[in-house]
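[INFO] parsing input record for Transcription antitermination protein NusB
[DEBUG] input buffer:
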Amino acid sequence: MFEAGQRRLDTDQVVTMRSNDPDYPMKAYAVEIVEGITGHRVEIDEIIATYAEGWTLERMPAVDLALLQIGTWEILFNDEVPDKAAIDEAVSLAKQFSTDDSPGFISGLLSRVLDVKPTLI
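[DEBUG] output buffer:
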């Protein structure tokens, strides 16, 4: 998701390109994530925009947006990943790859998505 956004490529292009890359092939679950987000993109982005108080999608760091999209998809559309694990993983990745404020922001937003999950699905 991050690469597609940064390179302004369609996610399908990135999946095809990366799936055929012998040095950095996409794992099956990564493809599932990309396809899942792509299939629910409008809904996922609308949910993020609704609960990202004071932030627009365009204003968010690209890493944060990608992590929020993944976390939101896992919470709402992937029953194989425990909801808390989705949040924990997104926060962990934010600590590694984003700003000092990002882990708290991502944790708060994804926790809110989890709180309202029964009304969303």
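[INFO] Residues 50 and 56 are 9 Å apart (CA to CA).
[INFO] shutting down worker
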